[in-house]
Amino acid sequence: METSQSIVPRTPSTTAAHAPTAECSEPPGSGCDVVTVPARQGLEAVDILRRGAGDGVGPVLHDDGGDTLGFVVPPGTAAAWDVPGSTCTETDGRGLSLDLDPEPPVEGSDWLLPPGEADLATDPAALRAALGEAARLIEAADNCR
User: Residue 53 is part of which domain span?
Assistant: First the structure.
């Protein structure tokens, strides 16, 4: 399993390389990548994505400790993921099933948005934008204290 983590801000990649592929647009069992973020930023991003015009959010996992959220994204996203404070893991379909009523693929986690109640995968460009907006909202809120 390959992981890509960014700690240095870079210019966002183009969205063309991140369009959902047939693998992730197909029914259950496809291999998708997972973007993991801190829960606070992830919850803000889910809200932003759900309010957006046409920018759907795919299945989202949360850990039982409530520390992180994992967004299901199309395969190949990990190769170009560059968002500071997040990690993108290539799953190759191992342990990740998008059945309509699946058990969470990782012990100690549960679905925040389960497959069947969400798009098949979150568009990485939309997620990148939502995570950036969420980080700015969190920073503004923290600076008001």
Answer: 27-143
